[in-house]
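Below sits the subject:
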Amino acid sequence: MGKTGAMRHFKMMLHAGRRFGYRDERGVSVSVFVMAVIAALIIACGLAVDGAAASSARRRAEAAAAQLARVGQDAATGQRLLAQDANTDAAAAAGIAAINAARGNYPNISVALTYEGGQLRVSTTQIVPTTLLQLIGISTITVHGSAIAEVARLP
């Protein structure tokens, strides 16, 4: 085979390889690296965006718990002062009733109340939907808030 015959044979083999699915694999490792970097960037952006939303919701849950505890404490104190009653249970009942009436101001936040030992404990929970973290299977983030109000004893 001469020089032109060898070149023709090389070109035929090159075209035959492409025709049967044989390819040069030099760019594959770069593609895998780029895909890994893109995935890491999406996760980082998801943590930033959805983390900020969760932090904001956590602040709202804490503020709601504190505000509801203040409502309960104000109602309990008012009940005790009006009735001049040393019974903290009756005052706490008034506080809990006031909190239940005020919880409608927080439609997306669930509220749990407990009264024990002269303290009204308000716990709030909010479920925050995610945007970017849904791409990796995290659809919601749950945040909590709590506050305690002391039902004061009359002297």
Remarks:
- The chain has a mean pLDDT of 77.
- The chain has three helices and three strands.
- The beta strands are 110-116, 119-129, 140-150.
